[in-house]
Amino acid sequence: MSIEYVPTICPYCSCGCGIYLVVKDGRIIGQEPWKEHPINEGTNCPKGKNSYQFLYSEDRLKMPLVRKNGRLQETSWDEALNFISSKLKEATPENFGFIASCRNSNEDAYVMQKFARVVMGTNNVEYCGRLCHSPAAAALIPAMGSGAMQTSQQEIELADCFFLAGVNLQETFPMIMRRVLRAKARGAKVIYTDPRKTTTARHLADIHLQLRSGTDAALINAMMSIILAEGLEDKEFIASKTAGFDELRAFLSKVDLKQAEEITGVPLEKIKEAAITYAKADRACILYDQGMSQHYVGTDNVRNHANLALLCGHAGKPGSGINSMRGQINGEGSGDMGCLCVFYPGFKRVGEDSAKFFEQAWGVSNLPTKPGLTYIDMLYKCPYLYIVGGDPMMVVPDTNNVKKALEKTALLVVQDIFPIEISKLAHVVLPAATWVEREATHTWIDRRVQKVDKVVDPPGEARPDWQIICQLAERMGYKDKFNFSSSGEIFEEIRSCVPQYKGINYERLSKTVGGIHWPCPSEDHPGTPTMFLEKFNTPDGLGHFQVVEYKPPAEVPDEEYPYFLTTGRSIFHYHTGAMTRRTPKLIDEVPRGFVEVNPEDASKAGVKDKDVVTLETRRGSIEAEARVTDEVPPGLLFVPFHFADSCANVLTISALDPSAKCAETKVCAVKMEVKA
């Protein structure tokens, strides 16, 4: 047979880069760059260049598995689904929980939340965005009216100042890094906050604010205080487009700059330089990631960066705003589709009005009107759990306690493409299709909706996620509400229920390289690359300042646990590593977990480069190979979270942001010893 070159989108981060897959005899044998795609223009990062190999890993799930006599055994779809449906009929709306994934398509996610609400009668539906970017919605919806990225990836290049808040751009979003580099070549300045001296700090930042972990709020308050003292606030913008400024100004007038220097560890001269650089820019763009948001004060951190943008008028124009950098293929879309316990699809807040709207749209009655349980609460409080495309045994803090809770479940269903860590505890494991083994849409980082066509068949009896859920709903007596024959039919229902997607359809997406940005209110609308051009999406159309007081981390070092621990990513791996650790070229680059240790700390502890060390917190311990490097300052240890054999979240603390219920996975106290 002839070789085909099939265009598709990379399955890793949420940039949405184009690639060509080389297909022969129904099997992918290679890939080539897609030079015409507007996001990556023919360039891909290491993950993007090796995007398909994991599909052919020997341990791909091909058949349903049911636990019998303590062991998972292959079975038929009928037996697996009949068993699940019989057990779910024992569950109540209060004790059932559904956890979706940032890797699901829009169609998958929509069907999953509909199953939870229609079939199970509960708002106990979440996805992994709760664990990283939920502070965006909690902070930015009150401040500006939306937690989504405010500018497009192409328009990022229009900025003449970038504020990179806790985002190691070179390792986590290399394609966006290229755009910042282009702007920098034209004279743009880059401010970067990160406790580590990363590759981004060394090669991109003009001003590296190497703050102590968890002190973002103190830093931003100091910057805003300086901006006001210098008279650099955008007075016209504040007067015409914002509310609450007087309260913020009164609070900032009391900020002690010397104390801010002591708290953050950043010299006051550098804070002042950053403040003036940001304020004087014509277009300044804040890009932030988990380093800023994954704290128990994550919502406060996002609120304060929004304050900074509003103070200087850096919002509502291309190349500006405060922009959440979602890390996974459908981090935006899964939230848009309603996989959050406080939102129905389209970010309609849970309540009687939303329930009535969807009762009419779906032809049902008695939809739940009260918020459900959040992701972590479900793990501890729901004995009936259905988990798709994610691994709480890798991503949730205090993993040892999570395991104890999951061992007590009456039914744990895991739907995935590999036997992941949580599969070891599951009663049923169902084999799912991957991103190119079914037709679907995803919504990438800048609200960009793109369509991915089916390229190859899934292995064995693996099926698309939405199809599995619909077949289960039929067994639960709801066939007429889930009678979808294709992903296209699901998307048509999405369009009718989600106003932001109304003007987007499969035909338009098939003809539009690079996709369409929501909101797109009609089929003749081009989409919206930049939000808030005329006004903010708040009830009064104004941007709202929100006073933020600094709070220290939930846990700080002491005599017994003398170091700070922080976690993050590697350019060669993705999330829990389920895909990249099954990709030979990527695992060859970074084959195992490690811990970065400053030379000063290594010398005091008797640690040499490549020694295996034991890291221990009050919650558990792991082993990891030491990398002695000045990338971390004295007193700070860094562990990537991709590796099951050195699971970083065994160590992290489960202190939760009171607003967003996002966990403090970026700072806790730890001790280190050389393995005996």
- The helix/strand class is alpha/beta
Task: Report how far the terminal alpha carbons are from each other.
Answer: 58 Å
* Radius of gyration, CA atoms, in whole angstroms: 24 Å
The CATH architecture category of the largest domain equals: 3-Layer(aba) Sandwich
In which range does the helix fraction lie? 25-40%
Largest sheet: 7 strands, mixed
Mean pLDDT: 95
- CATH fold naming of the largest domain: Rossmann fold
List how many beta strands DSSP finds.
Answer: 28
The total number of structural domains is 4
Spans where pLDDT lies below 50 across 5 or more residues: none
CATH class bucket of the largest domain: Alpha Beta
Number of helices: 24
Strand order of the biggest β-sheet = 5-4-18-17-16-6-7
Strand content: 15-25%
- What shape does the CA trace take? globular
Label this structure with key terms:
N-terminal domain of TfIIb, alpha/beta, six-stranded mixed sheet, 28 strands, Dimethylsulfoxide Reductase, domain 2, Rossmann fold, 4 domains, seven-stranded mixed sheet
Polypeptide structure, described:
By secondary structure, this protein is an alpha/beta fold. Helix content is 31%, strand content 18%. It contains 24 helices and 28 strands. It starts with a strand and ends with a strand. The model has no long low-confidence stretch (mean pLDDT 95).
Write the layout of secondary structure elements.
Elements: E1 4-9, E2 18-24, E3 27-33, H1 46-49, E4 65-68, E5 71-74, H2 77-88, E6 96-99, H3 106-119, E7 125-126, H4 134-144, E8 161-165, H5 169-172, H6 174-185, E9 189-193, H7 199-203, E10 207-209, H8 216-229, H9 235-241, E11 242-243, H10 245-252, H11 257-264, H12 268-280, E12 284-288, H13 290-293, H14 298-311, E13 321-324, H15 331-336, E14 343-344, E15 348-349, H16 352-362, H17 375-381, E16 384-388, H18 392-395, H19 399-406, E17 411-416, E18 428-431, E19 440-443, E20 448-452, H20 465-475, H21 487-497, H22 506-511, E21 516-517, E22 543-544, E23 563-568, H23 584-589, E24 594-597, H24 599-605, E25 612-616, E26 621-628, E27 636-640, E28 668-674
Parallel strand pairs: 6-7, 6-16, 8-9, 8-12, 9-10, 11-22, 12-13, 16-17, 17-18, 23-27, 24-26
Antiparallel strand pairs: 1-2, 2-3, 4-5, 4-18, 14-15, 19-20, 20-21, 23-28, 25-26, 25-28
